[in-house]
Sequence to fold (184 residues):
Amino acid sequence: MIRRMLKKTRAKILYGRGFNARGVGGQELDFLMKHIPENKVVMEIGCGFGQNTRRFADKGNMIYAVDPFLPERNLKTLMGENPEYVFNCFIKSIEGRNVLHYDMTSKEALEMYDGIKLDFLFIDGEHTYNALEIDTKWIKHVKKGGLFAFHDCSCEEVNDFLVEHIFPKYKFIGSRFSLFIFRK
Fold:
């Protein structure tokens, strides 16, 4: 049943409903923002242009933002070969907000993280199975009862990872298109 639901979600995304080329948009964004706490601690893995980072911070949250802004060979991805442009947009988005940016990979940030418990974790990083094995290690820092979300669940490797490792262990809260939210 879970795999069927994920395939159905993938089909919706391929037709372009609810998708914003610069991140979470439409009904996904509404659903995500409904679950983002206020005046808490939020971690974002994969920040892109910083639109979500800004929205999370504007709810009074302390944001830990992890993104090394590395160039990518696949030009269809967010960064492409111009991560400097994306990084500059990110910096403008978070200006004047309570954001601590880890300009490093998720693995590097884990090694130096101060251990503050998270109220919400948003994973929208590299979208590969191997990257998710690292990114989901942040779940140990989420408070009991806290929430965590994955974006771009229409990607096959993200689907596979969720089915194998996340659905069996955590409470599924709900989804909109390619955004899935769980409770620890």
